[in-house]
Structure formats: C-alpha cells, structure tokens
Write a structure and sequence with these properties.
Low-confidence stretches: 1-29, 32-36, 62-67
CATH class of the largest domain: Mainly Beta
Number of domains: 2
CATH superfamily of the largest domain: Umud Fragment, subunit A
Number of helices: 3
Length: 241
C-alpha cells in the first residue's frame, strides 16, 4: 500500500500541466525581477515615447555624468599647440588624472581654466615647470633649461620655432605650474603673463585635467604621452620629478 501511494503521488506530480510548473518557477525567481520591470514600466509611463525615450534619457544622463566627472572632450581652438595638436582636433581630457593625490608632471599636456590668469577661457598647454623648478630661457646654445638641465624639445616643438624669443628666468612657486605652447611663435602662455597677477603661473586647482588622447579626426587618433626628455630633469627643492 505504501508503495502504491508513493507511486500514485509521483504520477500526480509528474502529470501536472507544464504551465503550472513554469508559473511556479517564475514565481520563485521573480520578485526582484518583477520589481525592476515594474519600476521601468512606471518610469516609462511618465515619459512620452515610453521605454525607448526613457532609455535614451538614461544614456544621456550617463554621458553627462561621464563628461563632467571622468573624461571630457575638448576642441583645439588655435595652433598654439602645433605640431602636437592641430586646429579642430578633439582631445579627451582625463578629469581624474589629478584627483587622487597625483599632480601634473613636466611634459604633461593639460587643460586649465585661465580666468584671472590668462583670460576668461579654458586653455591647453604643456607643463614645463612645477613647484620649486627654476625655468630659464635660454642657455648659450639657445635651449630651454629646467633646474640647470637643458631640455631637448625637438620631438614636440613646432618646426622652425626657437624655445622662446622672450628671455626669462623664473622660479615656479609651490602649487603652481609654468606652461608653454608647443608652437612658441603662436602661443600666449606663461611667458606673456610674467608681469600679470600670478606672474604667469597657473595654480594646481585651476587644472581641469590631462589631455590623454586625440580622439578626432580618426586619422589623427593617438595617445599624448609625456616626452621622455623631462624624466632626465633633476628635481629641485620642493619640485616633483
């Protein structure tokens, strides 16, 4: 009798309709999934166009947050950074590069807010001196010197340009940067503001981020690496190597 009862029970379970089984499975898997789906449905009901419009809005919000806090495109407005950057190039500016204890290094290409220092706009230049550095132009051979070491700028300086037509000898205050364009003959940079408030130096907190990539046009896609020549510059008291 016990055997027959067990067999009868097994037959009853195996003969239950498959739709009942699938409904039971979906019930056990579903509370969290159903709540997410219900949330999306409720949100879509408030938006003209339903789910498609809601998805587009979420994507736009993500892109806005990404641009504001992580990586921002910046269009090159002039030839001041030629030959490295051409007018119309779009670079991707890494806004997290200096947010976790790191600071700009000599050779970095940075975007900064020039308000109160260069002008009421954002600028892009190359870091030549950091806090504590002595930057001189030019030595007897017409070369730029940082902390007594001449810098071979031939890999990025615009063809035909000299390191500077304006002589200078400056010590960069702590927490500031001395910046020059790669096209020295067509760049308004720290040299041109030595007598302005701040002495042509840009404070670290004005730096928006580091230009890491040329993203457009596609045939100019490349990474903007820090030139090796700056690695051989000795550190000064308080300078960052």
């Amino acid at each position: 009798m016990d055997t027959e009862a067990r067999q009868h029970g097994e037959r009853d379970r195996s003969s239950r309709p498959s739709d009942e089984l699938s409904e039971e499975i979906s019930d056990t898997e579903g509370p969290e999934g159903r709540s997410r789906s219900a949330w999306v449905d409720r949100g879509a009901a408030w938006v003209p166009g339903g789910r498609y419009t809601l998805t587009a809005l979420i994507c736009l919000l993500f892109l806005a947050l990404f641009s504001n806090f992580v990586m921002q495109p910046f269009q090159i407005p002039s030839s001041s950074m030629a030959r490295s950057l051409r007018i119309g190039d779009r670079v991707l500016v890494n806004k997290l590069a200096y947010r976790f204890g790191s600071e700009p290094q000599r050779g970095d290409v940075v975007v900064f807010d020039g308000t109160g220092y260069f002008g009421n706009a954002d600028y892009i230049k190359r870091v030549v001196g950091v806090g504590g550095d002595r930057v001189v132009c030019c030595d007897q051979q017409g070369r730029l010197e940082v902390n007594g070491r001449w810098v071979d700028e031939s890999s990025f300086l615009h063809p035909g340009d000299s390191p500077s037509n304006v002589p200078f000898d400056v010590v960069v205050p702590e927490d500031t940067l001395f910046l020059l364009g790669d096209h020295r003959g067509d760049s308004s940079d720290s040299r041109d503001h030595l007598g302005s408030p701040g002495g042509g130096m840009i404070p670290l907190d004005a730096v928006i981020g580091r230009a890491d990539w040329i993203a457009w046009p596609a045939d100019h896609w490349t990474r903007l690496d820090r030139p090796d020549v700056y690695a051989r510059v000795p550190a000064s008291g308080g300078a960052h190597g």
